[in-house]
């Protein structure tokens, strides 16, 4: 879903039909934060950092 959103945003910006870049950036940041939280949880299972708190 992350790659599809990134591609769709890039295509719409390139075509000049963008509805904005703020909302896509929020979505992208939430995806990357969620992946970071999942990675930290896999490495350090007893960490208090959760996937949701990173997103």
UniProtKB/TrEMBL annotation:
One of its GO terms (cellular component) is membrane. Signal peptide: none annotated. One of its GO terms (molecular function) is chloride transmembrane transporter activity. Keywords: Membrane, Plasmid, Transmembrane, Transmembrane helix. Pfam families: Voltage_CLC. It is found in: Membrane. The keyword Membrane applies. Its main location: membrane. The chain crosses the membrane at residues 24-43. It is a multi-pass membrane protein. PROSITE patterns: PROKAR_LIPOPROTEIN. This is Uncharacterized protein.
């Amino acid at each position: 879903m992350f790659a599809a959103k990134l591609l769709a945003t890039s295509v719409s910006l390139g075509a000049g039909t963008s509805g904005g870049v703020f909302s896509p950036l929020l979505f992208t940041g939430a995806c990357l934060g969620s992946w970071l939280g999942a990675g930290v949880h896999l490495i350090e299972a007893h960490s208090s950092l959760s996937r949701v708190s990173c997103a």
